[in-house]
Amino acid sequence: MADHQRTIRIADFELPRGPVTIGALMTMSRASWEHLRSQINLRRQSDSSVPLARCRLCEAGVFIRSQATKTDHVPMFVHFPEGSKDCPWYEGRTLQPDDARAAQYQGHQESALHRQLCVTIEQLANADTRCTHSAVDTYLRPEIHKRGRWPDVYLEFGELGKFALEVQLSKPFAPEIAARHIHYDNEGVRLVWIFNVLEVPLPQGFHDVITMQRGNAFLFDDDAQAASIERGTLVLKCYLENGKGGWLEPRLVTLDDLQTGYGRSAFIEDRRSDLLVASSKEERSCWWKAFQRAQNDKPHSPFYSTAFAPAWDSLLLKVPGLETWKDEFWEARSDRGQAHVAMLFAILCSVAHSADTGTENVYITKYKGEGAVLAMLNSKLSSGDFKHCANLIDSFVRSTALADLAERPSLRRMIKQADDTEAQIDNEHPVWRAMARLFPEVLDGLVRAELDDLGRLPKWAVSSDMAVK
Ligand SMILES: [Zn+2]
Questions:
Q1: Residue 89 C-alpha to ligand 1 middle, in angstroms?
Q2: What's the gap in Å between 92 CA and the centre of ligand 1?
Q3: Tell me, which fold does domain 111-269 have in CATH?
Q4: In the chain, which end has fewer C-beta atoms inside a 10 angstrom radius, N or C?
């Protein structure tokens, strides 16, 4: 590793993701950077002229390389091979994808074990009377032929649909994984990758497949074979991620158990987006519970209640600079930072909950019924306390189902006035970052984009102009 300093320090992703530093990439969870890696490869396959992520210096497309270490993998940004050698961050020669694929494919085709597994799987599937057509390693249709792709095992299973089973013994190559998912999706064929063993540590290519399959790994082994014979249909062994870097107890599943209605992937249980959806709500629900307790704290204002203390302490630990801001805020306004953040939370919760239920509910100010959210926002922005958050509030509202509110003349006027008279916090500011932790679906570009990719953005966080996607 002689040339360690020559590495891409910042990659600019298409919005809403925005810039991602190498530091941020390296501290991400595996699920998060693997999602980015897959999205980059999917884009590369579907439209190579517009990269999803670009090098900050030379603006050429970059991908995420998974660098193997002794026990794991470390992600890093790398220029695609056609990138400029003149870029100061150019990292030197990279592996030529075509050579790698050719070498791998050669070995793959020659493998007698591979052939035997494919034939066995086809025979077992054929024992099921619903299987009307099957083929091993054959050109199926002119479309597939033209693009030079054919599945290891192809099955037509009546109403259950058409399946391409890729039996993968050697590690698959990332661009190939993306290409196959796009291809079969266009053909209306469900793609399922089947492994023979789960190596430890698992090579990145297998991780990439599991990412596409939302945390599901399918194996065809002796247990699966025995169960297939017994049940008279194809049975696979399914490993589901446990969310802690390991697996749940494996289950024996059939093609009937697959969820196939979610775009490019077939899986038993969505282990990735369920966890992402849950973790997005986690911090917010602590604050919400604290707020409910605080409301019983009469006659004091709920926002000054000690009920918020644990939630506030946890936020202080997670948001760098919040502690310092709290002290500065006290100096400037003689008010408690915790109460200010709690009020901002109540403002944004009013927007989010009203967007979610379609009924206007505000948790700060006394407005009720139709027009309550707009009246609350106008009153909070006119009072001075929240003028410095006008841009935050504006971009929050615009990213929700209540986006139309942001076009109301009264609110436009308030926001402009606030923007003209007071310095605005931006997305680097500790208060903005605190809100991004509480409402990542809207304010954290990476989380928002990932939920959107997976079709799991909650409806309150879907703005009307996103429907085009
Ligand atoms: Zn560059």
A1: 5
A2: 11
A3: Trna Endonuclease; Chain: A, domain 1 (3.40.1350)
A4: N
